[in-house]
Amino acid sequence: MQIVNFLLAAAIGYLCGSIPFGYIYVRLLKGEDLTKIGSGRTGGTNSFRAAGLGVGVLTSFSDVLKGAAAVWLTTWLLGDRLGAELLPWAQAVAGVFAVVGHNWSVFLRFGGGAGTGPNVGWSAAIWPWIFPIAFLIMGGMLYFVGMASVASLSMAVVTIAIFAYRFAAGIDPTPAYLVGSLVAGLVVTWALRPNIVRVLNGTERLVGRRAKRGSQ
């Protein structure tokens, strides 16, 4: 029964995504509870606020890695059992659930982040060039716009556009990755609902260069 394999893919993705790297790093290095600092999220931006640039970067890379690991483990464990036709769907399921696990971690009483790191990670496991693209787009958005939420939403849209192009061009013979990117993008957007409201009314938190300018 293939449904069992897809449930396993979902479990792999969720458990990988649930590892709260930002929470762990800040707890170990600062002795503080990241969920009670700043936005309360456990991603790279709030880790940066709580413990500095190094921890923020480490958290971001770790969150990307766990999204990629969800796809790699699914491929390794289930690839032969699913075959070439069904494996992409299982990989997409694992990727989406890595985002879900990050946002609603079983280890943090179903709290977490916004899902951008694992969303980039699982997508990059499918097409590695997504990682440098994400680095450039998100780095640029953070530098010039100074809003992590806008950077996250922008990357979700870019990921969808990339997989839409790959499917339309016949590079991906299945729409599995496009569907996965759409669902993951919706999960990220749902988690960022409060931020979207603040962006629209002009009260969103700033980070980086713009945050420093605003505090002068």
General form: globular
β-strand number: 0
Share of helix, binned: over 70%
Question: What are the segments in which pLDDT stays under 50 over at least 5 consecutive residues?
Answer: none
Order of helices and strands: HHHHHHHHHH
Instruction: Write down the overall mean pLDDT.
Output: 92
For the record, the count of structural domains works out to 1
Rg calc: 17 Å
Q: Largest sheet, described in full?
A: none
The helix count comes to 10
Strand content: under 5%
Q: What attributes does this structure have?
A:
216 residues; mainly alpha; 77% helix
Write a structural description.
The model has no long low-confidence stretch (mean pLDDT 92). With 216 residues, this protein is mainly alpha-helical. The chain is built from ten helices and no strands. 77% of the residues lie in helices and 0% in strands. The protein has one domain. It has helices at residues 2-18, 21-30, 44-51, 53-103, 116-126, 130-144, 148-168, 176-191, 193-201, 208-215. Helix 2 (21-30) runs parallel beside helix 3 (44-51).
